[in-house]
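A quick aside before the break. I want you to see a complete sequence-to-structure record at least once, exactly as it would be stored in a machine-readable document. Don't worry about memorizing anything.
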Amino acid sequence: MTEEEKKEMWSKAQTTGAIIERSGTKFNSATNKDVALMDAQTRLQSGGGLFGDGLSLGGVINNNQSSQNIGTYGMPINQFLWKGALETINFMPLNSADPVGGTILTDWYSTNSNENERCKLNIFITGKELKTQNLKVTSFCQEFKNQKWLSKQVDQDNNIKIENAILNKAKKIRLESS
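That is the input. The structure line, written in tokens, reads:
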């Protein structure tokens, strides 16, 4: 992108909110404005997310021969699981998302129909292959009683249902990209 194109791009956005909104970032600016703005700027400049399309090492290692076994710098986890997880939980506010470590932590979320109960998720992606073993979802729920939030027992089947939803979304994304 030339300096002139950058100046034109930034002249169109007068506020950080406008930049974030125009970018299509998945990060919630109310939860973490710095991450949302960083992702928005990267998306607008590169057409991708925090790492654009990733920094491929395939051209250097394989003399520009394509290979599906070559990873990307900065994302040592399965990109389809990562994208599938973010898209599956996009209705929940993010507390943090670390594509290098493969962790997605949501903030507390409750529905309008049940404001006295809230839940949050911890999602861990641990490998480069699109496998069930490389995905772990842990949920935490609380109920508001006697003016304080109390932890509730979580049904482990719900964690499995969320994992399955993420896996199905990841498979769909992989099929759409090929």
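Two observations worth writing down. Residues 1-53 form one domain. The beta strands are 55-56, 72-73, 94-98, 103-106, 109-111, 114-125, 135-145, 148-151. We'll return to this after the break.
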